[in-house]
């Protein structure tokens, strides 16, 4: 297999990689289909929000869509911790790796961030968890922290988000733009190549397709490319690949 064939194989792999990347969903993005508003709560990440629990009087530290630096520095288990409080020992009430975003249940502008910890609470079947109700007003403030028993916390905040930070997500990503361009060029290659082979070179039948011999061996090309890459990774020579 010549170098130019391997280059084509690499381009094909790149296309599939770009498509796969475009399908990756940011866990802190929310596209509310009912209102048509796109929210990117990652813009709220990194801040150390604080507030006082309604029952215990404990001081809570929490972050939205990121781990909380104070919590991670306070000998809290189940890191990376996004929510923590001394109850009376410093406990994690939300793990950054166990986050879920959903729309608000009312008609207000904002979203809901749910954190869980995966650990049982007080020997019961419950787990410590936190619900953060975000109301997008353009101003950042902790409105209330309501404690439900020892395991659940409901936090209400106002923040600069949603319409105040980002319009509805639209348009195509870079990966899809590349794919569209590639498909357009490929279509032009097939159409004009076929016309030239038919009218200028006077080919007939399947031979009017441009570079028909190459495409007949396309399956072998893919196989050679896979074996070549595997040989490079494993350090074994692949003799089917010939340098020119």
TrEMBL record:
A Pfam family hit: ATG27
Residue ranges occupied by any MRH domain in the UniProt entry: 26-163
First-listed, main subcellular location of the protein, grouped into a coarse class: membrane
Membrane topology: Single-pass type I membrane protein; Single-pass membrane protein
Signal peptide bounds: 1-22
Origin superkingdom: Eukaryota
Localisation per UniProt entry: Cytoplasmic vesicle membrane; Golgi apparatus membrane; Mitochondrion membrane; Preautophagosomal structure membrane
This protein's name: Autophagy-related protein 27
Database matches in InterPro entries: Autophagy-rel_prot_27, Man6P_isomerase_rcpt-bd_dom_sf, MRH_dom
Keywords (A to Z) from UniProt: Autophagy, Cytoplasmic vesicle, Disulfide bond, Golgi apparatus, Membrane, Mitochondrion, Protein transport, Signal, Transmembrane, Transmembrane helix, Transport
Organism: Heterostelium pallidum (strain ATCC 26659 / Pp 5 / PN500) (Cellular slime mold)
Membrane spanning residue stretches: 173-192
Example of a GO cellular component annotation carried by this entry: cytoplasmic vesicle membrane
GO BP terms, alphabetized: autophagy; protein transport
Glycoprotein listed as a keyword: no
Family: Belongs to the ATG27 family.
Keyword Disulfide bond attributed: yes
């Amino acid at each position: 297999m010549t170098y130019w064939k391997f280059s084509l194989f690499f381009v094909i792999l790149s296309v599939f990689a770009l498509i796969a990347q475009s399908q990756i969903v940011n866990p802190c993005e929310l596209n509310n289909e009912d209102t048509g508003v796109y929210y990117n709560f990652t813009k709220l990440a990194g801040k150390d929000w604080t507030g006082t629990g309604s029952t215990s009087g404990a001081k809570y530290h929490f972050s939205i869509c990121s781990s909380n630096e104070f919590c991670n520095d306070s000998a809290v288990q189940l890191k990376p911790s996004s929510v923590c409080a001394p109850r009376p020992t410093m406990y994690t009430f939300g793990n950054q790796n166990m986050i879920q975003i959903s729309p608000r249940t009312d008609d207000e502008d904002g979203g809901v961030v749910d954190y869980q910890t995966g650990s049982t609470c007080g020997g019961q079947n419950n787990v410590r968890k936190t619900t953060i109700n975000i109301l997008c007003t353009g101003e950042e403030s902790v409105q209330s922290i309501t404690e439900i028993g020892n395991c659940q916390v409901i936090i209400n905040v106002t923040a600069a988000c949603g319409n105040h930070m980002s319009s509805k997500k639209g348009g195509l990503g870079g990966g899809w733009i590349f794919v569209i361009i590639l498909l357009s060029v490929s279509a032009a290659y097939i159409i004009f190549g076929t016309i030239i082979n038919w009218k200028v070179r006077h080919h007939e039948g399947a031979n009017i397709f441009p570079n028909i011999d190459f495409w007949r061996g396309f399956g072998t090309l893919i196989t050679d490319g896979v074996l070549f890459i595997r040989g490079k990774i494993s350090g074994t020579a692949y003799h089917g690949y010939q340098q020119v």
